[in-house]
Amino acid sequence: MSKIHPTAIISPNAKIGSNIEAAPFAIISDNVIIGDNCKIGPNACIYEGARIGNNVTIYQGASISNKPQDLKYANEESELFIGDNTVIREFVTLHRGTVATRKTAVGSNCLLMAYCHVAHDCSIGNGVIIGNAVQIAGHVEVEDQVIIGGLSAVHQFDRIGKHCMIGGGSMVNTDVPPFLMTSGYPARYMGLNIVGLKRRGFSVQEIEEIKGAYHIYYNSGLTFQEAKTKIKDNFPSSPYIQMILEFMSKSTRNIIRK
User: DSSP character for 145?
Assistant: First the structure.
């Protein structure tokens, strides 16, 4: 049974699932779709184009699917997706897409902590944790199971690979391949996210292979292209090494340095 506070403003054109809670002064606009068992906190604003899954909790003052902060935006139709079981804490801001992709997406089982911002045309994977006051610029791709420490910033068009750990207060201005731990201003290579990999069930052998690949890349003295060739030759059957090489092959922002 839904619990809608009498001061909440919900457009008759919004599509709302069952067992919804809308707290005082929550606003849900036209062209919004919300799944089942969601909780919308007080003064939260859900703007046009929001597509919210099931079991999503949005805390007070959050701004969901507002217009992009992009001078090229011309009121074109676009969307903002939030996957199932994701938690959006207080005063988070999520902007919908522009004509570039027409969507911004946040995956399932994510936690976006207070005051963080995800800009237009971003893609945030599943199981991602974004710390307090993290600022993510437009067109950024964050893959699955990434943790970004509080007060960090991510430059537009950057990519962060799976299972990375970004230290608090970092400035990420290049691409970060999978499995790494980074920190600093600008963010630098700090080794593997070994604790995270162990928690997620990676074997000792798999971790050693990943460590060996990055040792070649960062410590061999080879050019980056030579290092990538050697990695491919040394680990021809590892799916995780293939994941690293594929990520690097798509990089347009350069790869994080030591």
Answer: T
